Amino acid sequence: MNKINQHFEEFKKSRISTIVRTDDYDHALKIIEGSREGGIKFIEITLTIPDAYKLITEASKKWSDLKIGAGTVLTLDQAKESIKAGASYLVDPVCDVELLKWCNENDILLIASGATPSEIYKLSINGAKIIKFFPAMIGGPEMVKMIKNPFPEFELLATAGPNLSNLDAYYQAGVLGCGITADLGGAPVGTTVEEITTIAKKYMAIVAKYL
What we know:
It is a single chain. By secondary structure, the protein is of the alpha/beta class. Helices cover 45% and strands 16% of the residues. It is built from nine helices and eight strands. It has helices at residues 3-14, 25-37, 52-62, 76-85, 97-105, 117-125, 140-148, 167-173, 193-207; strands at 16-20, 42-46, 67-71, 89-91, 109-114, 131-133, 156-158, 177-180. Strands 1-2-3-4-5-6-7-8 form an eight-stranded parallel β-barrel, surrounded by seven helices.
């Protein structure tokens, strides 16, 4: 099994990721640790974090049981640097078919983004295994349902919208998974590892119903 399919199959068993979004390097490590302790295995480190590549390397070495991804990947150079740093997969906040093709040719899972049926379809026919539905808050679970009706084969990762109050609705609408910033990946500086762990466990308790 190639790496793209391997990571896809592993995510299907997990169905949730933490999207780390902070301006504080040390706090990012706490978010990763708390997410791991809470049972979340896929962690997206956004490249907007200071020293993001260093963080990817450190987290990959420190927690080898996690799948550490790089998020907010906008260029081919960023993609190459992220993989060099140790990222297992990449996440792109835009509909970039050329980057998707490069990743597929190099056996790298890229979760590229689509906000409309046309964008999602474009990514799908060009080989996307998982498509980031972003920003999910605009259409919410109802839009997921409308997209999945004519396109049940689309495997969507909803981000920028899911939280503890609506997570059930997204899974019931048919998403493959949810990427969480909110009070988890976006936990404010000062939140302890123990507090983040408690939050992560709350998300995992909901996801467990759909595994």
